[in-house]
Amino acid sequence: GAPRADTDLDDDFSITSTMGKAKKTRKFAVAKKVISPNDTRVKSVAKKAEEKRANKEKAKEPRQIEQTSSALWFQYNTQLGPPYHVLVDTNFLNFSIRNKLDVVRSMMDCLLAKCTPCITDCVMGKSPI
Fold it and tell me: CA 85 to CA 7: how far, in whole Å?
């Protein structure tokens, strides 16, 4: 006899029966459903997702920030005061020579306070004085 629709055939085929003969027609674009390796139902991916979520929550928590000096309000040190020790470089010396300025007096005029120029050995080696 003719094969029955629910027993002898594979899942890839379906039966359309007419009066005398059963026809086999192949199903179009049928694929087995496979779970994606990135699906959260996979245990390793679920564990990584849980760790990632825990790290995000940890990042949201307030961190301990060290207390800075109150003298450094708005990035300026209010505890600086005269007499100023000024580190002099070759550009400052060349500018003062070119414009015929006294180095100490021009520093005092600029800062409006007593100044002590500090000149390093390398500046002394390069200076034209």
Answer: 100
DSSP 3-state assignment of 120? Answer: coil
- pTM score of the predicted model: 0.39
pLDDT in tens, 63-121: 777 877 777 666 677 777 888 899 999 998 999 999 999 999 999 998 999 999 999 99
Single-letter code of the amino acid located at 95: F
Q: Residues 114, 84: contact at Cβ < 8 Å? A: yes
Reading the block at residue 14, the tokens are 């379906």
Are 26 and 13 contacting, i.e. CB atoms less than 8 angstroms apart?
Answer: yes
Specify the amino acid at residue 35: I
Cis link prior to 117 (omega < 30° from 0)?
A: no
The answer to whether 76 touches 108, Cβ cutoff 8 Å, is no
At position 22, the amino acid (one-letter code) is A
Q: Is there a contact between 47 and 55 (Cβ–Cβ < 8 Å)?
A: no
